[in-house]
Amino acid sequence: MPRTNFQDLLDAGTHFGHLKRKWNPKMAPYIFMEKNGIHIIDLHKTVVKIDEAANVMKQLARAGRRVLFVATKKQAKDIVAEYAKSVNMPYVTERWPGGMLTNFPTIRKAVKKMNTIDKMISDGTFETLAKRERLQITRQRAKLEKNLGSIADLNRLPSALFVVDVQKEMNAVKEANRLNIPVIAMVDTCCDPTPIDYVIPANDDAAKSIAVVMGALCDAIKEGLEERKLEKDKEEANKAQEAKDDAAQGKKLRPRKGAVKKEAEAKTE
């Protein structure tokens, strides 16, 4: 069964591309027709591509991997942040920090700095500082939180990148390509799909269109996380049963005190 259906995508305006004069010829396989100077995306292909991307995300979530969501455009940032939070995945909806992937250790240092400030506040060290220092640290903490707070628990490079608007997030795509990190993206008719591993041909400007795609992908991640939890619970139950069986087996093999005494008496005779 498809993750989303044709009618949902149609109602969300996912089929509306850009003006014909702004198109990228490499998107031709995903264009159904041209109407009133605007390209119309073939939603049958969009459904197939959403399913393909959703299955990839489900497998990653099931394996305990992280997907980084990237969307800094106004109409997408709140939607992407909300959905990413619902599946506990990292996201970037403010400015893309240059070198976030290619210079990941430096980004981690900045996140650790934020954690150090939090520790200072909790253990009372912060209160012992001068008023001016406290103000500087508070401002620094707010800036770090705004830019890096959403990736605070990203301890290693993500296993995949999800992008809304390939043109706007080109720096993120380039860094992922350089590190061979798979890129899943909503690609409009004006964009070049070549650097994208899993292309989802869709309107990347309409909030409803973004929400429909995000909903389908995050549902797949939830399924993967649930399957992972079930597997872990099953593993723990099996281990507990094995331990119980081993204990019972050991009890059976251990001779009773009376039997040991009788055996000793027989030997002395």
> What class, by secondary structure content?
alpha/beta
List the uncertain runs: none
Counted by DSSP, the helix tally is: 8
CATH superfamily label of the largest domain: Glucose-6-phosphate isomerase like protein, domain 1
What spatial form do the alpha-carbon principal axes imply? Answer: flat
- Please summarize the sheet with the most strands: 5 strands, parallel
Find the count of extended strands (DSSP E, 2+ residues). 8
CATH architecture of the largest domain: 3-Layer(aba) Sandwich
Cα Rg: 27 Å
Residue-averaged pLDDT = 88
Description:
- This protein is α/β, with parallel strands linked by helices.
- It has three domains: 161 residues, Rossmann fold (3-Layer(aba) Sandwich); 55 residues, Helix Hairpins (Orthogonal Bundle); 39 residues.
- It is 54% helix and 12% strand.
- The chain has a five-stranded parallel β-sheet with strand order 5-4-6-7-8, sandwiched between helices. It has a three-stranded antiparallel β-sheet with strand order 1-3-2.
- A hairpin with a 2-residue loop joins strand 2 and strand 3.
- It is flat and about 80 Å long.
- The N and C termini lie far apart (80 Å).
- The model has no long low-confidence stretch (mean pLDDT 88).
